[in-house]
Design a protein that fits this description.
4 helices; four-stranded mixed beta sheet; alpha/beta; elongated; 8 strands; single chain
């Protein structure tokens, strides 16, 4: 299941390096199943940042296919990736664009991180543009998902197939006896 990402703009008083408080509007990204959930989640996240009042100015669907955080990076970049496919009927190349949100420190590093994120791609692609995003932070819905899966002993698809195969073998052995 792919995530539905929402861009949320929040206006609140922010203390700057000089110590003075100014009203500022920051953009955050989070995944949610609806606008209502996005509003509730961004409210909870912002409450952790400020004790002051805040106002959610806007929530809109974001067009990111994937989000790729990288350690030791502090800014977010929007990378436009053109996937290239060959149209078998006409014999011409067909491009379809997707957008990735990639964390990096500068544009050069964002390009390298986008290339790293696309490393497993089977088809050809180009990266026509990378721009710095106004997004300040990303709040994914499932943090520590792997730990939760282990905790509840949820099996991967491959492990489920192996379990079913073992059960069939056991039944067959019992039937032979």
């Amino acid at each position: 299941m792919s995530a539905t990402w929402y861009e949320c703009k929040v206006k609140y008083k922010k203390t700057h390096e000089t110590g003075e408080q100014k009203m500022t509007t920051d953009t955050y990204l989070l995944d949610a199943v609806s606008y209502t959930e996005a509003e509730a989640r961004i409210s909870e996240e912002i409450k952790a940042y400020t004790s002051e009042e805040f106002k959610i100015m806007n929530i809109k669907l974001a067009n990111f296919a994937e989000v790729h955080p990288f350690e030791n990076s502090d800014r977010w970049f929007k990378a436009k990736v053109s996937l290239i496919a060959l149209d078998e009927e006409s014999g011409k190349e067909k491009k379809s664009n997707i957008y990735l949100l990639v964390q990096a420190n500068d544009v050069k590093e964002a390009f390298e991180n986008t290339t790293t994120a696309m490393a497993g791609t089977m088809g050809d692609y180009t990266i026509p543009s990378i721009t710095e995003s106004p997004i300040l932070d990303v709040f994914p819905y499932f943090t520590g998902e792997e730990e939760q899966l282990e905790k509840f002993k949820v099996l991967s698809a491959e492990e489920e197939v192996e379990e079913v195969d073992k059960m069939k073998e056991t039944k067959e052995l019992k039937a032979e006896k």
